[in-house]
Amino acid sequence: xxxxxxxxxxxxxxxxxxxxxxxxxxxxxxxxxxxxxxxxxxxxxxxxxxxxxxxxxxxxxxxxxxxxxxxxxxxxxxxxxxxxxxxxxxxxxxxxxxxxxxxxxxxxxxxxxxxxxxxxxxxxxxxxxxxxxxxxxxxxxxxxxxxxxxxxxxxxxxxxxxxxxxxxxxxxxxxxxxxxxxxxxxxxxxxxxxxxxxxxxxxxxxxxxxxxxxxxxxxxxxxxxxxxxxxxxxxxxxxxxxxxxxxxxxxxxxxxxxxxxxxxxxxxxxxxxxxxxxxxxxxxxxxxxxxxxxxxxx
Length: 298
Known about the structure:
This protein is of the alpha/beta class. It is built from 12 helices and 9 strands. The strands form 2 sheets. The chain has a 7-stranded mixed sheet with strand order 4-3-2-5-6-9-7, sandwiched between helices. Helix 5 links the parallel strand 5 (123-127) and strand 6 (149-155). Helix 2 (37-47) packs across helix 3, helix 5 (133-143) runs parallel beside helix 7 and helix 8 (231-246) packs across helix 12 (286-295). The relative contact order is 0.11.
């Protein structure tokens, strides 16, 4: 498959489009528009998508990254909450990537479900709104079991937290929950000068190579998950993770006492899972939390 002919948006085009739509980028919606074609291609390259992949983008904005995805794959889906941007994006694609196909979903990404898509996406590639980046990432992973690759741009500190390892001061709930779905790593850094308006923080790229899932396709070239990935198991696992980090200085015996009804019951569950009750949540990896959830199956 040959790459599509695409005309990218530069700084002038981005500002002109925004002016036409009377768009003033807002911090509330986390709007910072990429205007550098080399950065767009770098993001797409970091995602390492096959040419027949079907990626979904969250928050396409004026369409800079959308065009990069269409250049590589020829088709993509996009979820946009702003009605003005959603109305204009198909026209931008028609003008600048006329041979490509875009499936547009005008909706809050936190309310998207798999039923919204005509074709199931196998990748999530996005410049996520910084104010809701982690909730959106986790929601999309939960709702779209067909996703096999994630490449998202988030605030640099958030990227560090997502890729953090046990024992680190920045290791926490996002780190563990992201690791539930696959292997997570930093995939690069992006400076503020490629955005309009330029944010006051640096950005980081995070890549997740997702496991095959119990609630996903039966045939997949993704690595087999070391544990169950399903809505039912997630409903048991994630509350344990939340409670373990709610007060980081507490031992797991104390932190989980509310879930198990008492400190003694929490200790019994932890011991059954082979975990020291005096340990703190920041020392446990995802496999430890999975064992705990498995040991407490009802």
